[in-house]
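Below is one record:
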Amino acid sequence: GGDYDTMVNLSSAYLKEQSIPNSELTVTTDEKPYFVGYGGELGFETSTFAVGFSAGYMEKKITTDYHFSPAGGIDIRYTREQRFSAVPLFLFIRYKLIDTKFISGFLTLGEGVYLTKYSDERRENFQNHVITYADISSESKKNRLGFHLGVTLDLKVTTNIAISVDAGYRLAKFDELEMEQIYDDDNITEPIITEGDMYLWTNSETGDAKLKIGEATSSDKNWSSVPAEFDLNGFTLSVGLKITFGSNKKKNPVKIAPLNYQ
C-alpha cells in the first residue's frame, strides 16, 4: 500500500491512544492488513505452455467510528471509510514445468495495467454546534503498468477440473498522485471543491498521519509532508477453480490405406 499503509497504521495508533479529560471518547477501527479480492481468467493451453487474459478487483480498507462528547460541550459523532482499490487487467504466459496425472506446475509471468482508486468518505454529525453535519469526500485515481512473477500449481480433480493455486510477487507503483476533495455542510449553499497534488502529512509530536492536498508549511506546527506514493508491491496468493474445455489426450493420426485398382 505504500503511503496508504503508513497513513492507516499511524492514524489508527494515534486515535486508539487518545484520552481526553472530562469527556467521553470512543474510537473503533476495523482494518485488514492485506488486500482481498476476486477475479477470473480466460486462456489457451497446450502441452507445454498457456497464454491468456485475467481481470479482477482487489481492495484494502479501514473504517473508523468516533464519538467525542466533552462535559457540557459539543457532541460529535464521526464515521469514516478509507479505501484503496485496484482493477488489474493482465496478459499472462505460463510455461509448464511439470505435468502428471494429478498435478501440473507452471512458471507464470504477467504484465498489464492496474486501474487504482483511493477514496476517503467522512461524515460528522454535531449537537450543540453551529452546524448539524459535515460531509467530506476525497478521491484520487491513477493507472499504471504492473508485473507479476509466480508459480501456478493445478491440483487435478478430474480430467477437465482442477484446483488452481497461484503464488508470486506483484510489482506496481503509483506516484504523482492528484486528489479532489468535496466539502459540504448545512451552513453553505454550494459544496466546496478543492483539487491538487496529494501529500502524506506526519506529525512529529503526536505520531498522527493524514493524506491531504498540498504541502505542509511552517505555520502547520509539528507537521511535515512528502508527495504521496502508493504501491501494490508484495507477495500474492490466489486460489480458484480451473475448468478446461476440450481434451488433453494426444490424437493418433488416421492411416488411410491406398486404393488398389485391378
Notes: Helices lie at 3-16. Residues 250-262 have pLDDT under 50 and may be disordered. The radius of gyration is 27 Å. The first strand starts at residue 23 and ends at 31.
